[in-house]
Design a protein that fits this description.
Keywords: Membrane, Transmembrane, Transmembrane helix. The chain has about 170 residues and is mainly α. The protein contains four helices and no strands. The two termini are about 30 Å apart. The relative contact order is 0.15.
Length: about 170
């Protein structure tokens, strides 16, 4: 029986966990940014009164998933580093994963609640919906952080993959 199950993994479990988590996180972020949100915008849902509530529901769930992914990536990198000699590449990957965790925390506890609160129409007698100027600034901040997150995830995925092949 030992001859049949003699398959050896070339990578430690933590490296595989980090790579798979980064791939999932990157792909789900791209689907949200390039498929779901443009579809909602094209169908006119963003002009509806209930969009702030729907958007908060979508991002509430997604932000918690991002927090779990960021924590899992940081944990996998720290665990992989503890089994090997630290190098400059690994120190850079720790810094990148801490930055990604910070971005996920900013999304979860600052941007999403603030943008949802700004999008709520609390005056039922006011029929015109004007986008507040502060909302546009928050969108710019969101897209800046999103670009940073996508670049960071891609770079970290490349570093983890190269480290696992070496």
């Amino acid at each position: 029986m030992a001859a049949i199950t003699g398959v050896e993994l070339k990578r430690p479990v933590w490296q595989t966990t980090g790579i798979l988590t980064l791939a999932f996180w990157l792909s789900s972020s791209l689907i949200l940014d390039l498929v779901i949100m443009p579809s909602l915008y094209a169908t006119g849902m963003m002009t509806q009164a209930g969009f702030a509530t729907a958007g908060y529901s979508i991002f509430w769930i997604f932000n918690r998933i991002e927090l779990v992914c960021a924590a899992l990536v940081l944990t996998s990198i720290l665990a992989a580093q503890s089994t090997q000699q630290p190098s400059l590449k690994e120190n850079r990957s720790i810094i990148l994963s801490v930055i990604l965790l910070g971005i996920a925390l900013i999304y979860t506890y600052f941007l999403t609640p603030e943008m949802s609160a700004l999008g709520l129409q609390l005056n039922l007698f006011d029929s015109t919906t004007v986008i507040p100027a502060h909302m546009n600034q928050m969108h710019i901040g969101y897209w800046f952080l999103e670009a940073l997150k996508l670049i960071g995830c891609s770079t970290l995925l490349g570093l983890c993959y190269r480290n696992s092949v070496d």
